[in-house]
Write a structure and sequence with these properties.
The protein has about 140 residues and is mainly beta. The chain has no helices and 10 strands. A hairpin with a 5-residue loop joins strand 1 and strand 2.
Length: about 140
């Protein structure tokens, strides 16, 4: 079999695998999408509503600061379905990822939920100026 001498490309971010995201000015966040599940509900509270687009994509996110200073924020995350339609973020998910500075060595963990069509999705992570800094495919 022919073999390629080209070096392997770095693996794309995947669920369960930490990846680094440059957040500008030398600040780097280490983000892990611990799990990605489909669910019919993201809260048990008064704001519980059925998904309009078929399902909720519920991400369990771990945010760490790899270098410099970073701040976690659920608004840094967005998602598109397989047809490229932007998903609506549910702001009422239980245990939502908090907003705020994450000091080096510290961690923030929480949920981020999107009302999205069933099937594969792409989740984009933005830097503080809301420019895309990373993306992860969710099967």
């Amino acid at each position: 079999a022919p073999t390629s001498s080209a070096p392997a490309a770095p693996a794309a971010p995947a669920v369960g695998v930490p990846f680094s995201v440059k957040m500008r000015n030398g600040n780097v966040a280490r983000i892990t999408v611990v799990s990605a599940v489909r669910t019919d509900s993201v809260t048990t509270g008064a704001f519980a509503t059925p998904p309009k687009n078929g399902t909720y994509l519920l991400l369990d996110v771990l945010w760490e600061t790899e270098s410099g200073k970073t701040s976690s924020n659920p608004l840094y995350f967005s998602a598109k379905d397989a047809n490229g339609r932007k998903a609506d973020m549910s702001m009422f998910a239980d245990n939502q990822l908090g907003s705020g500075e994450v000091l080096p060595g510290d961690k923030a963990r929480g949920n981020i939920a999107f009302d999205i069509a069933p099937g594969a999705a792409t989740v984009m992570i933005s830097d503080p100026l809301l420019q895309e800094a990373a993306r992860i495919q969710i099967p």
